[in-house]
Structure formats: structure tokens, C-alpha cells
Amino acid sequence: MYAYFKGKIAAKEFDLAVLEVNGIGYNIRISADTSSLLPAVGEEVKLYTYTSVREDAIALYGFLTKDDLDMFKLLIGVNGIGPKGGQSILSVMTPDDLRFAIVSGDAKMIAKAPGIGAKTAQRIILDMKDKVSLEDTLHSAGEETRMESSASDSVREAVEALTALGYGMTEAARAVKEVKDAEQMTVEEILKASLKYLL
């Protein structure tokens, strides 16, 4: 219904922001993570929104980035995950953290979200594993150029090498993502640089 709202923050709580747009105040539900990143009351902000329509309520859910919104939409597409569940997960995990967890099958990480049990976390992994990939996780969503296949292979091999050393897939992928210009490095160089983030 609404793609986004841009206006001044009239009030904010850990799970709600009141955004004033052209003299109208909109209650927009937000995650704890989004709340911590919002500017001060009186400052202007742009929130991407999802409109939830139920028989008994209409609610707006707000996100600072399009990536957050897209991940939220994928989450609520999972059977048994409603908007509150989706925001609960995004309150404790960034979209990249969630992608790492899904790709590596790390249900325990997802189950750390309030109200999300082990079975639900497993369902999220099963439902979403074909919708996210390691490549999505290792490159920013707004990147205009994709990695060349050889560079992509190097990054993938570096992640595999770290897991062979005993690091979890989530941990390994996150460390490799921290390496700047990884696409221009050899596997050994990526490994050396990423280990600095793990040690």
C-alpha cells in the first residue's frame, strides 16, 4: 500500500515510531534494532513500510533499508511467521546474519529471537534456503557489479577452508565478508585477512 514514509520523528519507543508526514502522525511498528539506529526525535528519517491488514487491525511496519523490508517479506511468507515474528527475528539479527544462519543451517541462532522456537527456526531454514544464497550474503544488495566467477570461487573456497579449520559456516562467512576487496584477492590472502576477524 505505502512504499515508504519520509518525515520527522515525533516520538519513538523500542518497538514503535511516530512519524509526522505533512501534519499527520503515523504509528509505525519497528524492530528493536531499527529503534536503536533511528535519529533523535525531531530529526527526519525515511522508513520503508509494509502494511499488514487483518480483520481486526491494520498496522504499518517500518524499516530503515529496502534489504530489511525484503527480508521481512520473505520471513512472513513462511508458514506460522506473522509480522510480529518477523520483526522479532530482525530485532536480534540483521538480514545478513539471518542469511548466514539460513545458508549454514544454524537454527540455534534464529531461535534466539523472542517467541521463535527450535521447530519454527528449522521451518524458516527449510522454507528460505532456496531463496537466499551465500553470494547474496557476501555482497551488498546495492552492488552494481557482480563478482567475476573466479573471484566468487575464491571467496567460496575461503569460507570452506575456514569451516574446515573448525569455524561455523555463519562465523566463517561473516569474517570473509569483512575483508575489503576480497574479490581481488587469492584464497590464501582472503584466509589471512579473515582470520584477523576471528582471532
| Main beta-sheet annotation | 5 strands, mixed, barrel
Our count of helices gives: 10
Q: What fraction strand?
A: 15-25%
- Overall pLDDT score: 84
Distance between the termini: 47 Å
- The number of distinct β-strands equals 5
What are the secondary-structure elements, in order, as H or E? EEEHEEHHHHHHHHH
By secondary-structure content and strand pairing, the structural class works out as alpha+beta
Low-pLDDT parts are 140-151
Q: What is the radius of gyration?
A: 19 Å
Spatial strand sequence of the major β-sheet: 1-2-3-5-4
- Principal-axis shape equals globular
Helix amount, in percent?
40-55%
Write a short abstract of this structure.
With 199 residues, the chain is an alpha+beta fold. The chain has helices at 32-37, 66-76, 83-92, 95-104, 107-110, 118-128, 134-138, 149-164, 169-178, 187-198, and strands at 4-12, 16-21, 24-29, 44-53, 58-63. It is globular and about 55 Å long.
Key structural traits:
199 residues; alpha+beta; 5 strands; 19% strand; globular
What would you say this structure looks like, in words?
- The chain is of the alpha+beta class.
- The chain contains ten helices and five strands, in the order βββαββααααααααα.
- It has a five-stranded mixed barrel.
- The relative contact order is 0.09.
- Residues 140-151 have low confidence and may be disordered.
List the helices and strands and how they pair.
Layout: E1 4-12, E2 16-21, E3 24-29, H1 32-37, E4 44-53, E5 58-63, H2 66-76, H3 83-92, H4 95-104, H5 107-110, H6 118-128, H7 134-138, H8 149-164, H9 169-178, H10 187-198
Parallel strand pairs: 3-5
Antiparallel strand pairs: 1-2, 1-4, 2-3, 4-5
Helix pairs in contact: 2-3, 4-9, 8-9, 8-10, 9-10
